[in-house]
Structure formats: structure tokens, C-alpha cells
Specification:
Blueprint lengths: L14 E6 L2 E6 H5 L3 E7 L5 H13 L1 H6 L4 E6 L3 H11 L5 E4 L4 H5 L3 E3 L7 E3 L2 E6 L2 E7 L18 H10 L2
Length: 173
Amino acid sequence: MQREIDFVRVIPDITIKFRENGEWIDKTSDDLFYGKRCVIFGLPGAFTPTCSAYQLPGFEEKYDEIKSLGIDEVYCISVNDAFVMNAWAKDQGIQKVKLIPDGNGHFTEAIKMLVPKWHLGFGVRSWRYAAVTKGFQFEWFTEEPGIENSISFDDPYGDSSPESVIEYLKSVA
């Protein structure tokens, strides 16, 4: 559901805890976004059906096409810890898309995409969205319909697909 952004969305100034080669690595918003045009997509959780069957593998499959449209990085962010995100990337055979473990939900909360999923036993998670960023600004942002009723059992997927992102990128190429 592409909509006019009702406030200026900016990349939050945060530090994310990554786990690389058995070590904790801190990466800041500067490390991830400074001087780059990126695609970022958020999803409810690693190893969940739609995220694992369609969204993450779809972006991995369309990665080269997305990059050819002027994108420097493609990021997947989820409110999961670094251990889970690393295991999910390995399980899915992800080689190109970079996974961001927003374990505390700070990034997701700052961009107003954190939703309660208590009824599923998930705690709080990300609503499904996709965006194009340039530096620290959101150039384009779309979210799945229904965020206002996030406690439903629906899991909409379409507006945040790689095809939707590609359609936008081609429209401004």
C-alpha cells in the first residue's frame, strides 16, 4: 500500500549488534547507509512461512536486477537476534542480500513499523514493508495494508515484494 509518508522518515541513528566470525561487531547507521542508495525491506521474522518462501528468496533472486537500477546495497531487517539471522541466511543460501538483526527492535520502532504480535507468541515484530533510501532519507516507502489491525492473523504480502521495488526503481530511472 504505497502512501504518502505522513512525516519525514529518516534513517534512525542506531547501533546494531552483528555476529561475524564468532565475534560481536557493532555497525552504526553511518556504516550501513552513509553515501549509499539502498533497498531495505522489513519482515516479521526469520524462518516464518512468507518471509522464507517468498520475500527473502525473492529479493535474493532479483538482487542483480535491483543493483542494476542504481542500488548500492539490499538489506533485509527483522526483529530477530544476530544468531537467528545468521542461521536463517545460511539455511536460505543467501549470498547477496545483507541481513540486519534488529534484535531490540530499535530501528523498527524508530520508523514506526514495530507492531504487537503477542497473539502469535512473537512478542513485538516488524510490519512488512519495503523502502528505497538515499543517504539517511527514505526516498520511497511502501507497507503492506493492515498495520492498524496488526493483531489479526493476516499476513499480507505483495506491496513489499521485490517486484514492487523494481517497479518503483524503473519508474524513476
